[in-house]
Design brief:
This protein is about 0% helix and about 40% strand. The chain is an all-beta fold.
Length: about 290
């Protein structure tokens, strides 16, 4: 796309056919910043297998996400996500995850995302940052009514990620799987608690919706983001393991900001990992 436009809906209108409901687990639209061969356009692959072209493994920056129960979500009137401009993704891939525990046969899925955009550029550029605990390292022991997992985006991560003036967080989406019961994302500056960036004490896997914060919050370089997830495994007689390749969409939560430099900031065990974009992001003013 050569025309610079703004996406104005961050949930982008899920399109899930009736026969696919209950089987489609979540959908992610990823942007590619490195060059991608145009011959790959319109071709499907099984994700993260030998059949997937190597250059698509670098398409790791989420543009839009949808999970079970999610509905349309629109950016504020003065915010949009830039596409088609310098430093924007040059290619996109749609990744669909399925869960078919009943082994239903004969399903031909045609799910996707409906995208709204405008050529009337808005005042501020939006971005998406994801933080939490990598699920590939997650083991939930059995018979635990409140097993806690904590993911931390540490001060050194945000120090490298955000511009000196900080960014404004204005919305969030919490994500856990079926054992998830409570999620809370907290914001710290040094040892000082600034406030919550998202909370759900009655988490429902079947209702995963992006939500606006009551008040926009400024996140400064050097701030710390802590995500606490509470799991109830009393229904499980054995430990619960996650056995698939971790991707940003599988992290415990995400929050949207108006400036973006990193793909993700994620805890794996006791380590916080910052994964920078391959190209420098463009800065924009903070929301007011």
């Amino acid at each position: 796309m050569s025309l610079v436009t703004h996406l104005i809906s961050s949930q982008f209108g899920p399109v899930i056919p009736p026969e696919s409901k209950g089987v489609v687990h979540h959908i992610i639209l990823y942007g590619c910043y490195a060059p991608v061969n145009e011959s790959l356009h319109g071709v499907g692959y099984t994700c993260y297998t030998n059949s997937m072209p190597p250059e698509l493994f670098d398409c790791r920056h989420p543009i839009a996400v949808w999970a079970v129960g999610g509905d349309d979500f629109y950016y504020p009137d003065n915010v949009g996500l830039s596409i088609g401009g310098p430093g924007d993704p040059t290619f996109a891939i749609l990744e669909t995850h399925y869960n078919n525990p009943e082994n239903k046969a004969g399903i031909i899925d045609n799910s996707g995302l409906r995208i709204w955009y405008t050529s009337e550029l808005r005042q501020y550029d939006a971005g998406l940052v994801e933080t939490g605990a990598a699920v590939a390292t997650l083991i939930v022991p059995p018979q635990q009514p409140a097993f806690q997992v904590r993911g931390i985006c540490a001060a050194n991560c945000s120090q490298d990620a955000f511009p000196p003036t900080g960014v404004k967080a204005f919305a969030y989406m919490l994500h856990a799987h079926q054992l998830g019961r409570k999620l809370q994302m907290s914001h710290y500056r040094g040892s000082q608690f600034i406030g919550e960036l998202g909370r759900d004490d009655q988490y429902d896997f079947n209702y995963q919706q992006s939500r606006l914060l009551t008040e926009e919050t400024t996140i400064m370089p050097g701030d710390t983001i802590v995500l606490d997830c509470i799991y109830d495994s009393t229904s499980r007689p054995k430990p619960t393991f996650v056995r698939h390749r971790p991707r940003p969409s599988q992290l415990s939560s995400s929050y949207r900001v108006d400036w973006l430099l990193t793909r993700r900031c994620v805890s794996r065990g006791s380590t916080t990992i910052l994964e920078p974009r391959s190209l420098s992001a463009k800065a924009s003013s903070s929301l007011t």
